[in-house]
Amino acid sequence: MTAGGTTHGNSGVLRSINERVLLDRVRAAAPISRAQLARDTGLSKPTVSTALESLERAGLVRAVGLEIGARGRAALLYEPDPTAGYVVGIDIGRAWIRVAVADLDGNLLARQDRRNRARGSAGMLTTATNLAHTVVADAGLVQGDVAHTVIGCPGVYDRTADRIRYAVNLPGWGRPGLRGRMEVALGTTVDIVNDANLAALGEYHSGAGVDCPLFVYITVGTGLGMGIVAEGRLFPGAAGAAGEIGFLPLSPRPLEVGDSAAATAASRRGMLEDAVSADAVVRGARAL
Asked: In what order do the strands lie in the sheet with 61-66?
């Protein structure tokens, strides 16, 4: 590569970095002026102006008015454009499949819940896909407007094998090739994330975990799960299973103390979920 080519390539990378820094700052502090962006980021005013123009052309930010009460000439204020793209969220559980569409500010545009009557992964994939297309249409959008889809479900997604592990409550959901099949069916890029982890992120951004540097979120439903957030980021552990507390051993099982067979079985993995999930609580109440 020539020296000129190298310089041009480096300039393009630097420009992209500057735009990302400014977009993150606009999202965090909007509405905000160019002068304030320069002060906050340490970038020069010409650099800020050039980057903002590029972000405006891409539809990622927009001008929203003038700064009130400022000395001298009124400054133009900017905010992210939430209509630059839309996202689909799909929650797949044993009893229900839920789909929602939101803009980039997280504003909910449409949602539907449907009973999960599927007996295997193919049926769940078909139900989720059809429901997603319906909800996108309900939001007044077409599939091409959707920038990304996130699927939340029990278990741990293994990227190497492209399969879900430990989703014992979803028959057949662990078949390889899940992400690829979903991307083809939905026509968007797809991320598959543990549902408790997604719930923890939601609490961090908009719920009880706001401004909390370290917390855990525990879900008790068909199964038992936990999401860990540290300094604003998920802590999944080395293999992605840090929150899989349902597989911790519990011995002996509370309602079966003295039963040698049950005490032996209680040493196997998964007994904590068997003892404290919603179904287990109902069984325990009926046994009293």
From this structure: 32-33, 76-80, 61-66
3-29 core/surface letters (b: 16 or more CB in 10 A; e: else): eeeeeeeeeeeeeeebbebbbebbeee
Could you tell me where in the chain the CATH 3.30.420.40 domains are found? 85-199
**Amino acid at position 203, single letter:** E
Count Cβ neighbours within 10 Å for each residue of 148-185 and write b for 16 or more, e otherwise: ebbbbbbbbbbeeeebbbbbbbbeebbeeebbebbeeb
The CATH class that applies to domain 85-199 reads alpha beta
pLDDT in tens, 183-217: 999 999 999 999 999 999 999 988 999 989 999 99
- pLDDT tens digit sequence for 79-124: 999 999 999 999 999 999 999 999 998 999 999 999 999 988 899 9
pLDDT for the residue numbered 264: 45
CATH 1.10.10.10 positions along the chain are 3-82
Would the pLDDT of 265 be above 80? Answer: no
The region, left, alpha or beta by phi > 0 then psi within -120 to 50, assigned to residue 102 is beta
The reported pLDDT for the residue numbered 74 is 80
Sort 231 into a burial class: Cβ within 10 Å, 0-12 / 13-18 / 19+. exposed
As a whole number of angstroms, the distance between CA 236 and CA 243 comes to 7
Instruction: Give the predicted TM-score (pTM) of the model.
Output: 0.79
Q: Which fold has domain 3-82?
A: Arc Repressor Mutant, subunit A (1.10.10)
Banded pLDDT at 253 (limits 50, 70, 90): low
